[in-house]
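Weekly puzzle thread! Below is a chain. First person to post its structure in token form gets bragging rights.
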Amino acid sequence: MSPPVLRCPLCQTPDGWQFFVRAGVPAQDGVLWPTRDAALAAPRVDTRLALCCHCGGIWNDAYDPAVVGFTGYDVSTDGSATFLHFLEELASRLATTHAGAHQHVLDIACGRGTLLRMLCGLTGASGLGIDPNAPPDADGAVRFIRDYFGPRYGRLVKGFASCRQLIDLLPDPMGFLRMVRDCVASPQQTTFYFEVVDARPTFSGGVVWNVIHERRVWFTPGALQRALTRAGFRVDAVAPCWQGEYLGADCAAAEPRDTEALQADELAEAKQQLAMFAGQAESATTRLVEALEAAVARGDRVALWGAGARGVMVMVNEVASAAIGTVVDINPARQSLYLPLSGARVESPDILRESAPDLVIIANPTYGAEIMAHAGRLGITPRFMSA
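Winning reply:
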């Protein structure tokens, strides 16, 4: 039997190279569940990652749009002082390079509208945020529409538009980008900021907890620039942001253009790096499992701090699920809900005053310093370990 054709969702080239498979993972990390029983029965799917040998994009070939939705979706980290500082710096830069020249700001997939409010506050522009989970009411010069962005909002794409942490989660990212480009009423007077997760830290560092089913595509800087160019954007800059975990792209509307394929040396380097990922992922898992088994043998109380993507994926591991007695997160929207498949209940960090853990697993080390400072304010002195 011939191997299946792996067709890249970014360039449609049937030249995919599969390098990682993980079975039985949650369909989504951004949707938690109201009861433990519902969480235990959450959709269970596979992840199969492939590299496009033409454009350099990485995608999940097992992505199932039928089990991915964004109503009730909340992965906001706006409650983190560290992340809020990033948003403030981003808003300041965007106000200088983009939004300050316009009277209107559109934020597609605005979430709670934090960045949009910052931009409008800095520039005096009016703002519109569109998101199925947007705030229900207007806020001064900023108003919100609870909906998915689509062609019916095309007349609103003018001035400056931002779209953060969305296109890599969509079943057809190129279709979405082309739709946004087609919605521009005045191309000469419209600029954009797109932001996605940077593939490089995950796949060069073996961060298996970052590999989630709902991420349809993963971008390197080159793959993101190629995709935006093919969709009809002039890419002025692509640069890492947020501790090197994200990529931000400054763009303007242009005519779609074909892009060149990866050079042979680029492809060889990418394959070499990705070929090591499965082993790195296994080593990371073994390291965590051995630490948790040792903690259980000592009789330690163990907590996990962080119920986002990494926390969800840590708790899928059977050893972790059995050893970790408490899961906490600072996001109130995730508290009192249950993680998919593991059924672990998410609590406020305040509960750690009572449970007094001996060991706290930090799901995302980017927040490590902030988490340890928060633990100090709670009056607890556990050992810390990053997943």
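Puzzle host: Confirmed. Bonus trivia for everyone else. The chain has two domains: 1-263, 277-386.
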